[in-house]
Specification:
Length: 807
């Protein structure tokens, strides 16, 4: 990928920075429209006016089609950006937030949005249809021969603190970057949209001992190295990350289920104390001794250790009549280790370009082990309100999941004329997965009595074989990929405690179509269609009850079959005077994986994975933007619509669920050097959900979201900034109050000591109105949750940025 990016032609715009560093860098090229190059959309970052202290995130917010949420989530045309590259190199893996909120935007020459092909496709030349939405940041030429970074530290008088240190050294094809972060502010700059630390995965506790995100105290560090020296045939790149997190989340959850003849409402208050350490590393080495042979090695490893203490209170009602209440405590220690290694080898033909033979082989190993205790006390009530029964659960849990996966493929490509290539491949993967769950109750003061109904030792071997043909053609403005594969999947399941075996074999066709027509460098149309199996996890198969929450028991279904889906995508982009992006997606499941949930008269529920038919989803996103040259005003209008039809069993009844969500809005932005800048965005949404269990019990509500970012320059070397966001959700008959979040923060920035130090005073959550709230709908259930967040606080920080050329 590094060579591919380096090979893209660039129009470098060189300028000399001003001495008064806070003043904006003002470069106005003749044409600031994005350019389209096959599967890449390229923005000229020099066309965007920014302050010297602006981050990559500030730059991305100014580009049409790109949305950046307050949580750091980046989307393009409604699709999530999964990875971020710098000059074609992966930096800190799949953690874009680390770069976007800590990297200097003025170092960037181009921003490229790439439909990145899979590693197997890039190496073998046979397109498997997999694409990852990726941002590649192309550095300015002078930054490729310099070392630069920042040192930032801040705090207040109440023991709040936050610090970020970044050191980067780029010398030709060599990249070195070190990052250190520490904070107890719960600052979203450390986090991605799932709420976990950007350099860490979510806490993998199978007992559910995590109550939410909370206000974390974090420490994280990372180290990146990459090198492709000029004239050499090898390329080496690697990343190492470490993260430590302590948090005490508090979450209130209300879940409303539509059941036949009744509404089941469960209100729950969760608290937990969580500690987690994670080490993560990856390494890739490419060796290309000549233009016909290649060798590549890839390795990644992860080690997580976590300790969790959790407690919960719940009470539930049937049509406003109390049916049960209870308490639950969990203590757990978690260890999670993953290792993956892959080896690639390819040889080509000197006489016939396009002809190649390659072998790809990989090994993946997972070892997850959890030890913990569960205590639960529940009381159940009669319809007249009198106590009916009390149950107590006091158990020790041991859960282990060990998986080894080997896969390999043989690939052959050859040319059919000047513009067409065909390929054939055969692949096989063997997954050996063992899941062991032991539950013990007390006996003579010790947890040494095995509970057979809650213990199981399950072994699943999944063998998947696939053979396929592809045809790839690129002529003039049209690129076409056709593929067809035949797949055979064998599930061999063995219950080691009951000495029983189940063998299931599935055959499927995996079609692929990708067509792209580039009308000109400013306009393109892309259509894709693919179909394939949706795999099953061992947890969905293992026939044992999971009573980690005794009111909501889950169990596997050994007769579950894989899902199968067809997906059609369309995308039209035009970057002429009006910048238009239109994207659509439609997915139909021949077989889908859903749930069957049974609720008894006491409110206890048992859920199991089952297969259903008829599931479908549709999505469309549209945006239109324009920059008015006379005023410098950027205007964007946008809209989106999503429809989902899903099915699930409520007891013995099959429920058909329809959900419609839509939104529309407008954004405005303007930058006047030395005076002011602002960005304003307003959006309105609507959600409608209906279940056939009770068609009259619909859920529908409106939402609003308004954001404003502004800066005012009262004098040179000084800026006053404001950020305000307001989110509103309409009440429903089950959630009887409107929920709103108002977040307001202000900053004052000034350069000191001959512009070497940036001093910043930030006042956050000024009105103390920020709350963590979300509302989601799935099947016949709508859930609303509140989580604890940072209250009002202020912080004084000092930032030293440096940028020096290598001698």
């Amino acid at each position: 990928m590094a060579r591919t990016m380096a090979g893209i032609s660039q129009r470098a715009i060189l300028f000399k920075p001003k001495i008064d560093i806070l003043d904006p860098v003002t470069v106005t090229p003749n044409d600031n429209r994005p350019l389209i190059r096959i599967d890449t959309i390229e923005y000229n970052a020099a066309a965007i006016r920014l302050n010297r202290d602006a981050t990559i995130e500030a730059l991305l917010r100014r580009l049409p089609g790109i949305e950046v949420g307050l949580d750091g989530k980046i989307t393009f045309n409604g699709q999530k950006i999964e990875r971020l590259l710098v000059d074609g190199e992966d930096i800190f893996g799949a953690s874009p937030t680390i770069i976007t909120r800590n990297f200097d935007a003025t170092a960037i020459s181009k921003v490229q949005i790439i439909d990145r092909k899979s590693g197997n496709t890039q190496f073998s030349g046979i397109d498997d249809g997999t694409r990852t939405k990726t941002i590649n940041l192309v550095l300015k030429e002078d930054r490729r021969h310099s070392y630069f970074g920042k040192i930032e530290a801040g705090g207040d008088m109440k023991s709040h603190y936050e610090t970020t240190d970044l050191l980067s050294s780029f010398s030709g094809k060599q990249q070195i970057m070190a990052l250190g972060m520490a904070s107890n502010l719960g600052n979203a700059g450390f986090f991605e949209e799932e709420g976990h630390l950007a350099v860490m995965d979510a806490n993998p506790d199978p007992l559910g001992g995590v109550a939410g995100n909370g206000i974390p105290q974090v420490f994280a560090s990372g180290l990146h190295y990459a090198n492709t020296s000029a004239g050499m045939e090898d390329h080496l790149a690697g990343n190492y990350q470490f993260g430590h997190l302590n948090t005490k989340p508090v979450t209130s959850i209300t879940a409303v289920q539509t059941l036949p003849g009744t509404i089941y409402v469960q209100r729950q208050q969760d608290r937990s104390v969580n500690s987690q350490d994670e080490h993560l590393m990856d390494l890739v080495y490419d060796y290309n001794p000549n233009n016909v042979s290649s060798l590549k090695f890839f390795f990644t490893g992860r080690d997580i250790k976590a300790c969790n203490q959790f407690n919960s209170q719940i009470f539930s009602t049937f049509n406003d009549s109390l049916v049960n209440n209870g308490i639950r405590y969990i203590y757990s220690n978690v260890e999670d280790r993953n290792l993956t290694g892959r080896l690639f080898w390819k040889i080509g033909s000197r006489k016939k370009p396009g002809r190649s033979f390659s072998i790809i082989s990989g090994l993946h190993k997972t070892d997850d082990n959890t030890n913990g205790n569960l205590y639960s006390l529940n009381m159940f009530f009669k319809p007249d309100g009198y106590l009916q029964t009390i149950t107590c659960t006091d158990q020790r849990k041991q859960i282990g999941n060990n998986e080894t996966v080997w896969d390999g493929s043989l690939n052959y490509t050859d040319s059919l004329g000047k513009h067409t290539q065909w390929g054939a491949n055969y692949s096989i993967s063997i997954s050996n997965n063992k899941s062991k769950q032991n539950t013990y109750e007390r006996g003579d003061g010790k947890y040494d009595i095995v509970i057979d109904s809650l213990s199981n030792d399950y072994h699943v071997i999944v063998t998947r074989q696939r053979g396929g043909l592809t045809l790839q053609s690129q002529r003039n403005k049209l690129m076409l990929i056709l593929g067809l594969g035949l797949e055979k999947t064998l599930y061999n399941q063995e219950n080691l405690l009951l000495y029983s075996q189940i063998r299931k074999e599935y055959h499927s066709v995996t079609p692929q179509l990708r067509a792209q027509y580039v009308f000109n460098p400013s306009q393109t149309l892309t259509l894709t269609w693919f179909g394939g199996l949706q795999p099953i996890s061992i947890a969905q198969l293992q026939p044992v009850q999971n009573n980690n929450d005794p009111l909501h028991i889950t169990m596997g279904n050994p007769y579950l079959r894989p899902g199968y889906a067809h997906t059609i995508n369309g995308n039209w982009q035009s970057f002429k005077r009006l910048r238009i992006i239109l994207g659509t997606s439609f997915t139909v499941y021949d077989v889908a994986i859903s749930t069957r949930t049974s609720t008894d008269s006491l409110g206890k529920q048992v859920s199991q994975a089952v297969n259903v038919n008829g599931t479908k989803m549709a999505r469309t996103n549209f945006s239109l933007s324009h920059r008015f040259p006379s005023s410098g005003l950027d205007v964007q209008a946008f809209s989106s619509f999503n429809y989902t039809r899903s099915y699930n069993y409520v007891g013995t009844a099959l429920s058909k669920n329809d959900q419609y969500t839509g939104s529309y809005g407008i954004s405005l932005g303007k930058y006047v050097p030395d005076k002011f800048n602002f960005q304003f965005k307003t959006a309105f949404g609507y959600t409608y959900t209906r279940s056939s269990v009770d068609p009259s019990a619909t859920i529908h509500y409106q939402t609003q979201n308004h954001e404003i970012y502004g800066g005012y320059f009262p004098a040179k070397q000084m800026e006053i900034g404001l950020m305000a966001t307001y989110t509103w959700r309409q009440n429903t008959k089950d959630f009887d109050s409107n929920n709103s979040i108002l977040y307001l923060s202000a900053t004052i920035k000034k350069y000191l000591l001959k512009n070497q130090i940036l001093a910043k005073v930030s006042a956050n959550n000024l009105l103390n109105k920020n709350i963590g709230i979300s509302r989601t709908s799935s099947y016949n259930q709508t859930t609303e949750s509140f989580g604890n967040t940072m209250g009002r606080y202020w912080i004084l920080s000092l930032t030293y940025r440096f940028d020096h050329p290598h001698k």
